[in-house]
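Is this the right way to post structure tokens for a design question? Let me know if I should format differently. Anyway, here goes:
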């Protein structure tokens, strides 16, 4: 039997394993990020960093559900300087993706200018899609704002950059966003963020299960996998081939990951399932994906990446 490879490359980074944590899970502190790096994950994504530390929304702000989770975290994080310091003063032998998410385009620009001046040359992810900052709309649903942000960012930023996108639901949305992004030297997109402003009710207490925003929050987990698959597929069909895709949403098994890669993802991120199971999940996902590839006769991810067939029946 030939050697099975599950490695993938995004920008200047090689992921020996195609699974990483989704921003916001096991990544707020140095200790948590070290847990990810010491697992079978291919790398680590930092908590989405703002210019200054944030405590986030009031608690309870996260709840597990039977088929996933709901959260309204509100970007709790240690601040950009904390994550840059962690990167620059630790020997890290796996890729690290520095996620940033300002509460305004101005803050995003300021953060990216700081990163541009730093010694960090790895992947950076601009979050255009956080649905849980009270009073702040998602940039990702305002196409004019996306265009303005990309123009401003690429007027000075020269390092590898990706954008995290919200879920889209209409073909015209995929067309419009792809038309904007294809104009710029993006390294990758990350799709999808949680499905914003869902509501989970506790029938026993007759109340919402989380506190912020009257109980409205981002939905993740098994619920959202069909939406994630659709977004990965639609963007792979529309984006320039050199723009890679990180597929996120509903991954709890190797088969889930296989399906996202089949739709066009280069690597996948794990959120809700990681929160529930812990970093040990990465070894299981590696094994399940590898075994599925062996069963199907595939030797590397490129053998099936983006090769989803239409149903001809």
């Amino acid at each position: 039997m030939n050697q099975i490879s599950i490695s993938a490359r995004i920008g200047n980074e090689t992921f020996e394993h195609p699974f990483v944590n989704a921003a916001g899970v096991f990544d707020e502190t140095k200790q948590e990020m070290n847990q990810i790096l010491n697992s079978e994950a291919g790398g680590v994504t930092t908590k989405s960093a703002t210019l200054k530390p944030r405590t986030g929304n009031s608690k309870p702000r996260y709840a597990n559900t039977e088929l996933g989770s709901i959260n309204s975290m509100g970007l709790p994080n240690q601040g950009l300087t904390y994550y840059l310091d962690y990167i620059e003063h630790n020997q890290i032998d796996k890729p690290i993706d520095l996620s940033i998410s300002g509460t305004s385009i101005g803050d995003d620009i300021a953060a990216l200018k700081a990163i541009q001046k730093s010694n960090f040359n790895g992947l950076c992810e601009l979050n255009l899609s956080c649905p849980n900052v009270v009073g702040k709309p998602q940039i990702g649903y305002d196409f004019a704002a996306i265009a303005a942000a990309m123009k401003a960012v690429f007027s000075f930023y020269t390092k590898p950059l990706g954008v995290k996108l919200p879920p889209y639901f209409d073909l015209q949305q995929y067309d419009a966003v792809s038309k904007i992004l294809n104009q710029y030297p993006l390294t990758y997109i990350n799709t999808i963020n949680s499905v914003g402003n869902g509501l989970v009710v506790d029938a026993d207490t007759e109340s919402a299960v989380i506190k912020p925003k009257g109980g409205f929050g981002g939905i993740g987990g098994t619920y959202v996998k069909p939406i994630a698959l659709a977004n990965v597929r639609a963007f792979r069909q529309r984006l320039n081939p050199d723009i890679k895709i990180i597929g996120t949403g509903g991954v709890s098994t190797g088969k889930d990951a296989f399906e996202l890669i089949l739709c066009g993802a280069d690597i996948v991120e794990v959120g809700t399932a990681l929160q529930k199971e812990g970093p040990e999940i990465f070894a299981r996902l590696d094994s399940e994906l590898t075994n599925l590839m062996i069963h199907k006769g595939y030797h590397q991810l490129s053998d099936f990446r983006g090769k989803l067939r239409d149903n001809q029946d």
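Format looks fine. Someone answered above. Worth noting: Residues 8-57+74-194+221-303 form a domain with the TIM Barrel fold (CATH 3.20.20.70). The first helix runs from residue 30 to 37.
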